[in-house]
Amino acid sequence: MADTIGTEAIRRELEQQISELRREVGRLARSVSGRGETVLGDLRGSAEDAYEEASEQARKAARLLKREARVVGETAREHPGAAATVLSSAGLVGFVLGFIVSQLLAGETRR
Fold first, then answer.
1. Are 30 and 67 contained in the same domain?
2. Residue 109 scores a pLDDT above 70
3. Domain span including residue 56
4. Do residues 7 and 15 lie in contact, with contact meaning Cβ atoms separated by under 8 Å?
5. Is residue 31 located within the same domain as residue 73?
6. How many CB atoms lie within 10 A of CB 83?
7. What is the pLDDT of residue 1?
8. What are phi and psi of 79, to 5 degrees?
9. Are 83 and 75 in contact (CB under 8 A)?
10. What is the DSSP letter of 111?
11. CB-facing half-sphere around the CA of 77: CA atoms within 13 A
């Protein structure tokens, strides 16, 4: 009988400890959840800010590109001979560079 009383006391003590552990786990889960929501909110805000900044930079770049393209177009209309010379020269330089690179690559495969 004394053994039964001791076993019963141990069982009650274990049940009490398990109950306390469950409450502590619940508190920890709520705490982690709250922190996770805070971090997620901060990350979402940072991402939105980065997107808005990148979007604004892209708009500025597009406006600048349009302006530069307009200037190049006007210059080409005003000086068609110079534009043709520049474009022909660029094409010739590109062809020569391509030929040199192809010869170098062909030489590498022969070795």
1. yes
2. no
3. 2-78
4. no
5. yes
6. 15
7. 53
8. -130, 70
9. yes
10. -
11. 6
Question: Cβ(83)–Cβ(76) under 8 Å?
Answer: yes
- pLDDT for the residue 110: 61
| Domains held by the chain: number | 2
Query: 18 and 71 in one domain?
Result: yes
The residue with greater pLDDT, 93 or 46, is: 93
- Dihedral angle of Cα 39, 45, 47, 49, to the nearest 10 degrees: -150
Is the same domain home to 43 and 86? Answer: no
User: Token pair for residue 10?
Assistant: 């141990």
| Domain shared by 47 and 84, yes or no | no
| CB half-sphere exposure, 91, CA atoms < 13 A | 6
Six-digit token string for 47 = 């991402």
Looking at residue 89, its pLDDT comes to: 92
